[in-house]
Known about the structure:
Shape: globular
Bound molecules: glutamine
Order of helices and strands: EHEEHHEHEEEEEEEEH
Helix content: 10-25%
Distance between the termini: 11 Å
CATH architecture: 3-Layer(aba) Sandwich
Low-confidence stretches: none
Number of helices: 5
Amino acid sequence: MGSARSRIGVLALQGGYAAHARALEELGHEAVEVRSSEGLQGLEGLILPGGESTTQLKLLGLAEMDAPLDAFVRSGKPVLATCAGAILSAASVRDFDQRSFGWLDVAVARNAWGRQVFSFEAKADEGGPFGAIPLVFIRAPRFVELGARVEVLATYQGEPVMVRQGNVYAASFHPELSDDRSVHKIVFP
Length: 189
Ligand code: GLN
């Protein structure tokens, strides 16, 4: 089964964008590193990688990308936001409060699965579209409140670790750091 090759952007201002680009190429897509608003043009989807959300917010501001990025995500093209990307996507952020774009009607708590030394690997709970996929957590945020329109796609110990609202998918873990491609595949078939 060949999937159509799409041009998918990976926000490349900071953080773990390279592994996401490799995952997209593995699936036969063209991965485009995005560092400016011009770079968003002509893309059929976008990945917001993990990293440090405060730094990413600062760099987005310096690159004058806030409004173009917001428009791109709200245009309805598929977006995969992981870890720091999920924090940028949330409606509200706790520990500590910071600016966010509100594409997902969720509240997140930063670093709530433990700090760097507490990064760990686990398996998702059975069930849902993915089953027991590998989960890599690195100072991961927790989804602490979900609005009614938010669908849970994966859980760990009964807690949501991947959610979706319309075209925006967000994971608190790092699907690009395991060799299971089912998360990328569901967003970018
Ligand atoms: N703790 C980071 C933040 O708050 C996110 C961690 C990650 O992306 N691996 O931005």
